[in-house]
Amino acid sequence: MLKTLNLAIRFLLELCGLGLLAYWGVQVGANAFLKESSSGSACH
Q1: How far apart are CA 42 and CA 20, in angstroms?
Q2: Distance between CA 27 and CA 34 in Å, rounded?
């Protein structure tokens, strides 16, 4: 019983960590894209 509960908690914490990592990646990626597009420099 305790082992199953421990595994369930670890699984939920892992999902939360992955969700936070994905959220952080989207935020950083969006900021980098906005910074690049607002600078007006075009690479040709």
Answers
A1: 33
A2: 11
Predicted confidence pLDDT, tens digits, the chain (44 residues): 999 999 999 999 999 999 999 999 998 887 776 676 666 555 65
Q: Which residues contact 6 (CB under 8 A, 6 or more apart)?
A: none
Structure letter (DSSP) for residue 10: H
pTM over 0.70: no
CA distance 32 to 40: 13
User: Each residue of 24-43: b (16+ CB within 10 Å) or e?
Assistant: eeeeeeeeeeeeeeeeeeee
d(CA 33, CA 24): 14
